[in-house]
Amino acid sequence: MQDPITSSLQSLYDESLEIKLGYRDRLVVFSDLHVGNRRRGDDFLKNSELFMAVLGRHYFPQGYTLLLNGDIEELLRFSLSEVEARWSDLYTLFGQFHDAKRFYKVVGNHDITLPLYREYSFHDALIDGLKLRYKDEVLFLFHGHQASNFQTRFNMLVGLSLRYVARPLGIKNYSVSRSTFRQYKTERRVYSFSHADRIASLIGHTHRPLFESLSKIDALRFRIEQLCRQYTTARAREKRKLSEDIQRHKTELEQIYERKGELRSPRSIYNSKLLIPCLFNSGCCIGKRGITAIELHEGEIALVHWFDKNLSQKHFDLIDETPQQLDGSDYYKVVLNQDSLDYIFTRIRMLAD
Ligand SMILES: [Mn+2]
């Protein structure tokens, strides 16, 4: 007997559109823009120039399909007409992808009313979820609020309090989805569902980037362990570099704990003995240090971070890659993590019980 949340995830999966993802197809996934009225209090404002440059000067000319994975318009705090009027430049960019038939827009809990607006420019692009078939495997994309009972049941109440209490007081988006405990519960449910169905899921909603089911804390711990293992068998001259890498990752991990407080820091989401790499999260576009996204191209999946050099010198690259500059601008991209889809699906098949 399935619990109500698992069965609602299953029907969402069954009812979602399925398309093929070929080796040559390129897809970029962003979620959680929370676009408002372009004034102080609009969470999107700070990264908006960066976001529009990245779409217009990188992903569009590079032939990417754009998938917006929910909570794009902040309709719990602003009206759609206000958002559309203030952000015509952003809508023009979306329109380029839409006209090129390279556009999907998944509905989230903060823009859940979009399908009611028949005159909405991208009405025909709205979906609840999307199944990407890569060879015989499926990568399932949806916003993620479906896995959180609090959100689904009390969305209207949250809307009222955000619009009538938070907005006049100038309180920014304090979405319940970001409370550590709810984040963790949502992630764990999607993880179990994906694990049981032998699929990989890609969500947003919690604003916490995940790659192969690992949060940044988990990924750092994992990496430190791997490096320590390598150290024991490394040659003398490699040992120095390894030891430096271990120290650097340790410092980074300690900084996260200091910032978040050890007890409050998100726990690992997997309770099985083996980690199944079946859960991905593109993060969000309203972060202090820039925006994160998931890219799919040439059979690979990558978690990337775009940032403005003037605002964020520090970029947390786990694979020591040199940042890629966006044609002469102050905007840079680092690949936080990357892996082949074949390898990910092989592990899902082999490791899931
Ligand atoms: Mn959400």
Q: What brief labels describe this structure?
A:
alpha/beta; Purple Acid Phosphatase, chain A, domain 2; 8-stranded mixed beta sheet; 9 helices; 13 strands; 39% helix
Short recap of the structure:
By secondary structure, the protein is of the alpha/beta class. 39% of the residues lie in helices and 19% in strands.
Structure report:
There is one protein chain. With 353 residues, the protein is of the alpha/beta class. The chain folds into two domains: 4-215 and 268-351, Metallo-dependent phosphatases (Purple Acid Phosphatase, chain A, domain 2), CATH 3.60.21; 219-260. It is 39% helix and 19% strand. The strands form two sheets. It has an eight-stranded mixed beta sheet with strand order 5-4-3-2-10-11-13-12. The longest helix has 25 residues, at 236-260. It is globular, with a radius of gyration of 20 Å. The two termini are 18 Å apart. The mean pLDDT is 86. It binds manganese (II) ion.
